Amino acid sequence: MFVHLCLLLTLIPLAVPFHLPLPLPRPASSALPATRVVVVGGGFGGLNAALALASSPSAAPSLSLSPPSRTDLHVTLVDPSERFVFLPLLYELSTSDADIDEVAPTFESLLAGSNVTFVRGAMSNLDLKAQTVSVEPTAADSSTNSSAAPAPSSLPYDYVVLATGMPRPKLDLSPPPPEALHFSNLPAALALRGRLSSLISDEKRDKRCVVIVGGGYSGVELSTNICDRFSSEGVGADVHLLNRGGELLKRSSSEYNKKAALKALEEKRVSVKLHTTVRASSRDGAGRLELSLSDNSTVPADLLVYTSAPATPSLFDADRSLRVVSGGGAWPNVFAVGDAARVQNATESGTAQIAIAQAQVAAYNIAASIDGNRLLRFNHLDLGEMMTLGSNSAAISALGGRVTLGGPLASLVRRFVYSARMPTQGQAFAAANLAGRSKINSKRDAQKKKKKKREDCDK
Ligand SMILES: Cc1cc2nc3c(=O)[nH]c(=O)nc-3n(C[C@H](O)[C@H](O)[C@H](O)COP(=O)(O)OP(=O)(O)OC[C@H]3O[C@@H](n4cnc5c(N)ncnc54)[C@H](O)[C@@H]3O)c2cc1C
User: Fold this and answer.
1) Do 37 and 161 belong to one domain?
2) pLDDT of 351-391, one tens digit each?
3) What is the CATH number of the domain that holds 193?
4) Domain membership of residue 196 as a residue range
5) FAD/NAD(P)-binding domain: which residues (predicted)?
6) What ligand 1 atom has the least distance to the C-alpha of 84?
7) 164 C-beta closer than 6 A to ligand 1
8) pLDDT digits over 22-68, tens only?
9) Among 282, 306, 330, residue at a domain's last position
């Protein structure tokens, strides 16, 4: 216990978003017209950049650039969805271990009290000469009563931040069967949650079969969590994990996490197939989906979940100050952050950690450009890696693998660290509260189920 406590204390720096030693930009005179900043995409990069630019009092402490807040910026955030999505918690949402308001709070609630104007719509064109962002409005969603203003068709800007994330890849099978989905966004996670629930409640089925494609973080984390979802309900299921390459978790630099993940897959009896892809699909006599695999085997699938990243993501090239580069020069007022940015000489990309750090740098650099100060260069500081390996297990590796933690305590720490990384303080408290309650409830449920099992055996 003492060792665990020491580990927990050493991990606390992970929970505190790191703070750049930023010189404060000079607040501009309020007599000047406001500088218009349009941020396109409200994910980790875009939302955090918008909050940092607006120096929102509700922003997480690491995001305040120049307190007290600047009054010379007019910040507009554009996103087609009405919710920010904390993607690393999609596993918990899919397996009913977390609620939508913890994982995907509305922009309306996150931006309340800030100076950021939210426009719901998708950027359809960026006119660099005219300095306008064209916006295609999104059809209203019936699930919330959003009071967001209707999207204007064109937003003029002085500065723009491009933070549109990774595009969704196409599924291998064409046309994709109704059982297939790509696990990369909120609608897919909610669809998966619904399908898992209906598979569990389908008492006519003797054994369910789930096929997950892609042996990166998402494939491994999803497989272990889906296994736990079925076993917590006492329902039989076969979970298959297919990987095109010969190695799982190729991007992970943590040997500790890799070992813990392989152990979890083995313990949960996930059937792992390397060098294997889905070739074709058909139906058996009962209408059940059957997949033909590249190793010439077939497997039934009640659910087929793709997790792989797009082969050729469409990216904006950016210099180390995060200004978009084209034709050999940098656009001084166009910045790119997060998954959408391919930063010169950067070896790492594609994590929320990087998107948040880049959001800070881009926001600072916009303020510095306005004030005529020197721009910061983005340098990645790797804080470590956390993986969920089931409803009550995780693996954490920090400080280049010098600090590691596994099992139920790591699962709890991961959930609270993620709460601390929520974009606003209000959401951080709400998420920590919901996470705490969900952990207590799942422990209570597990105890109830154990007791019932004992009683059934005694009968
Ligand atoms: C299932 C899953 C689990 C993950 N787990 C982890 C993890 O544990 N740790 C980690 O560090 N990273 C994790 N990642 C990766 C991490 O979430 C991303 O690297 C991070 O979200 C990138 O932030 P972003 O702002 O660039 O993009 P996103 O967060 O994807 O946000 C992009 C935003 O742009 C919006 N958008 C798209 N097109 C347009 C348009 N045309 N106009 C306007 N808006 C647009 C989208 O609606 C979205 O809100 C995970 C990713 C997934 C899918």
Assistant:
1) yes
2) 999 999 999 999 999 988 998 889 999 988 888 999 999 99
3) 3.50.50.60
4) 180-306
5) 36-359
6) 49
7) yes
8) 434 444 445 567 899 999 999 999 999 999 998 755 555 454 444 33
9) 306
* Among candidate residues 240, 274, 306, the one where a domain is terminated: 306
Protein residue with its CA nearest to atom 7 in ligand 1: 88
* Residue 333 CA, ligand 1 centroid: distance in Å: 23
Q: Write out the chain in H/E/C secondary structure.
A: CHHHHHHHHHHHHHHCCCCCCCCCCCCCCCCCCCEEEEEECCCHHHHHHHHHHCCCCCECHHHCCCCCCCCCEEEEEEECCCECCCHHHHHHHHCCCCCHHHHCCEHHHHHCCCCEEEEEEEEEEEECCCCEEEEEECCCCCCCCCCCCCCCCEEECCEEEECCCCCCCCCCCCCCCCCEEECCCHHHHHHHHHHHHHHHHCCCCCCEEEEEECCCHHHHHHHHHHHHHHHHCCCCEEEEEEECCCCCCCCCCCHHHHHHHHHHHHHCCCEEEECCCEEEEEECCCCCEEEEECCCCEEECCEEEECCCCCCCCCEEECCCCEEEECCEEEEEEEECHHHEEECCCCCCCCHHHHHHHHHHHHHHHHHHHHCCCCCCCCCCCCEEEEECCCCCEEEEEHHHCEEEEHHHHHHHHHHHHHHCCCEHHHHHHHHHHHHHHHHHHHHHHHHHHHHHHHHHHC
CA-closest residue to ligand 1 atom 52: 87
> Before 27, cis peptide (omega within 30)?
no
Give residue 294's identity as a one-letter amino acid code.
Answer: S
pLDDT above 90 for 4: no
Q: Are strands 329-336 and 323-326 parallel, antiparallel or unpaired?
A: antiparallel
Quick: pLDDT tens for 125-178. Answer: 999 999 999 999 887 654 455 555 666 789 999 999 999 998 877 777 888 899
Q: Is 78 in the pocket of ligand 1 (CB under 6 A)?
A: yes
Q: What's the domain count of the chain?
A: 2
Ligand 1 mean position, distance from CA 201 (Å)? 32
